[in-house]
């Protein structure tokens, strides 16, 4: 199936039917709208863009309120384990069930109550912050046994309260004692290089005391309290305790509201759906009574599409459907493959969506991905664990479509992992000692040769796909020049280099040498053909021939199939060796079991991650570089983007 054929439609319907029509198309999930505001079409110039801004603003404001409520309750909703959540899955509702549930929920009252509680909590938070700031100021003065009010009421004397650097303390005390006769000084605390002091002096000597303080870098502290510092600290701590109790009570009240979490999620989905419906109208143009809708629909779904329209508009509509032009860059691309291949579509999508006039590379990368991944992990035990985990997830968990694809992806990858593992005789490393057809420790050259042969096959396949695409488009000469020349060059070069190792007769090798030369001459003479001058043509051809070094680099890259496979096997065997070195039988059972489980799980996760990354790299660089460009626009159907629920799709 690969790239799904698309059709472009133009629909004229009555505005009175627009809302119901959009609801049906949303559940149909096979329509992508075209933004008509961006189209410069004189035939549509009499139509206007008409957005229901007031309703949209109201829905978005309501959405913000519901989201606020959900965020408030998130902390207090009982946490489900990941496994339990997957087993339970999302709540599934039909449209009617959704509307019925929404109508039964007074979400505005829930929001208002939570908003008031949040405001109170914010007030408490601010008050607590102020108290902590005051305590920070007061705490160094806790040893002062006189109230600030008493100090302020002095008549014959004045006072100074503040800090001086600790290094000046002794000097200041001596100067004060020598120069200010009627004075009293008390060092109340010493913190981080600062001395906290109180100085009392007779009014006649206040100015002299002030000058001495300034000379010793005195920093005055302003206090707004009348009580003793210890009393103020006690009162602040009392207030702090009361605020914490109030905060705890409010949080308990919020916790009581957590029972409405699912109800609020349902309202959120309902409002999100309505928000999506109103935003979809941004793509349409309308007159006083009509609405014009333009978009894309899979050609295979056109009949169902028209039935959806008829179910709402009866015969009061106009629909024009045309098959998309192959070379139209605006056509969105939808992929459709069999059950196995579809699990690998994410690999293609991560690179780039194919253009509408390209081919979907997924069916052509799938067999290589399976084999390469299997060679890199290459252990029967690891394959069995992957198979069991993926199968359990598919059978026991309620997964969405994307999660199911991910589970099937690793289910399929487990099979070649077991097959190659059996060939290597690897069962959790060498724990069972069952010999395979190939011994990784001794047959390194054989495994390397197999890796390179697979690389050659994939590179040749990539060139073959490119040739097919050119021939399909009627570009026979381009197919010969751009792929035939490389087939000749690479094949001749491979036989020339490897013929002696394979025992190929010298006469045959000589023939392939000339085949390589013919291919190289073709490359030089044809690869610069797009240029105008003869010199530029030859220069372009010579530069293209230089790319033969790129093919050598590509081929060497496939050695990672051997390297990662051997590395994983050796690491697994190393864990087994560690277990074997435990002499004590009890230690072997207890510590050995722990090493076996933890070590092999670690090796499996590391090996699978490495295999995933490096297999993708081989597809993207070495394989796709031969035939695939991508750059297409993915088909983004008009449908609900459910966060908390599964909404039933129309059949």
What does this structure look like?
The chain is α+β, with helices and mostly antiparallel strands and 651 residues long. Helices cover 61% and strands 11% of the residues. The protein folds into four domains: 1-37 and 284-334 and 637-651, Alpha-Beta Plaits (2-Layer Sandwich), CATH 3.30.70.240; 51-136 and 235-281, no CATH class; 146-227, Alpha-Beta Plaits (2-Layer Sandwich), CATH 3.30.70; 339-626, no CATH class. The chain has 23 helices and 15 strands. The strands form five sheets. Strands 2, 3, 9, 10 and 11 form a five-stranded antiparallel β-sheet that branches. It is extended. This is V/A-type H+-transporting ATPase subunit I. Belongs to the V-ATPase 116 kDa subunit family.
In short:
By secondary structure, the protein is α+β, with helices and mostly antiparallel strands. The protein has 23 helices and 15 strands.
Tags for this model:
15 strands, 4 domains, extended, five-stranded antiparallel β-sheet, Alpha-Beta Plaits, 61% helix, alpha+beta, 11% strand, four-stranded antiparallel β-sheet, single chain, 651 residues
Low-confidence stretches: none
Which percent band covers the strand fraction? 5-15%
Could you say which structural class the secondary elements and strand pairing correspond to? alpha+beta
In percent, how helical is the residue content?
Answer: 55-70%
Number of domains: 4
Span of the ends, CA to CA? 21 Å
- Give the number of DSSP strands: 15
Mean pLDDT: 88
Task: Give the helix/strand layout.
Layout: E1 2-3, E2 6-14, H1 18-28, E3 32-33, H2 53-74, H3 82-88, E4 91-93, H4 95-103, H5 107-138, H6 148-152, E5 157-165, H7 169-179, E6 183-191, E7 194-202, H8 206-215, E8 219-220, H9 229-257, H10 261-280, E9 285-286, E10 290-298, H11 302-313, E11 317-323, E12 332-333, E13 335-336, H12 339-342, H13 345-351, H14 362-377, H15 380-396, H16 401-424, H17 444-472, H18 476-502, H19 506-526, H20 534-546, H21 548-557, H22 560-580, H23 585-623, E14 633-634, E15 645-647
Parallel strand pairs: 4-15, 12-14
Antiparallel strand pairs: 1-13, 2-10, 2-11, 3-10, 5-7, 5-8, 6-7, 9-10
Helix pairs in contact: 1-11, 2-5, 2-10, 4-10, 5-9, 7-8, 14-16, 14-22, 14-23, 15-16, 17-18, 17-21, 18-19, 19-20, 22-23
